[in-house]
Amino acid sequence: MDQDRQLVVKSNHIIEASYRLSVAEQRVILSAISQVRRDKPVTDEVLYSVTAAELAQLCGTDPKTAYRDLQNAAERLQTRRVSLLLEPDGVTIRSKRRRVTCWVQTVDYIDQEGRIEMRFGKDILPYLTGLQREFTRYALSDVAKMTSAYGIRLYELLVQWPEGHREVALDDLRRWLQLEERYPSIKDLKRRVLDPAVEQINEHSPLMLSWGQRKTGRRVTHLVFDYALKKPTKTASGVTDAAKKKRKSGKLTDADITRLARPGETWETARSRLNQIPLEI
After folding, report:
1. How many other β-carbons are positioned within 10 Å of the β-carbon of residue 55?
2. Neighbouring-strand partners of residue 102
3. Candidates 3.40.50.720, 1.10.10.10, 3.40.50.300, 3.40.190.290; correct CATH number of 1-145?
4. Is there a contact between 1 and 57 (Cβ–Cβ < 8 Å)?
5. pTM for this entry
6. Do the Cβ atoms of 149 and 198 come closer than 8 Å?
7. Cβ–Cβ contacts within 10 Å for residue 213, how many?
8. pLDDT tens for each residue of 22-70
């Protein structure tokens, strides 16, 4: 895998869809999404391959654990469902019609190779390819080492809004994460969902996150998230590694732009911003 080029691109309808996947299942789905071609039409006949060795390297896990997780994910993914808005990006929604569909239509596990091959469902593909507006993109490495499924989902909801502030209705969050009747008190939700998710985001992602709550009357109705990019790591000379590479090469490659783009930032915006940064520091 070329980790510099592994981008996850999703329609915002998928970001705010209602579904629940384990960490292992999310890693497989996101790894496959990062392989989807966005420069030409893609059919539901395309097979996407994910190996345990690649996941172990990407996520920093033990290879034996990666093999076990991949096999378990292969057995369950075909039954995992997602509830989403029927209309893809750019289409005006005239009603609150939703479709319940499966993420994938087939999953094959090749035991001797520690590899799976999967096909996305026909109804899912319009939310993963050919997107021109209302989509979110981020590097797969941003979430690869997270061990909280809620942390991955919350990170996506934040980079969907790159301004650094998002207020989420508590009822919406419950629906998106398919919490149903679990953790009815805000205390339990904080302990079992929010605190672990925030801890994972702060430890493993490019963001530093804090959160609070807003009440309507005596009831907590909204969660308020504030976040910003972490400061880049500097070398002993005080120059960031990214800056040293730019100074050495004298120009930005496509891979540089992909790697240095901020969470939620389009490739074109990142290129424009980065090209304005002086090469010499």
Report:
1. 25
2. 81
3. 1.10.10.10
4. yes
5. 0.80
6. no
7. 14
8. 999 999 999 999 999 877 778 899 999 999 999 999 999 999 999 999 9
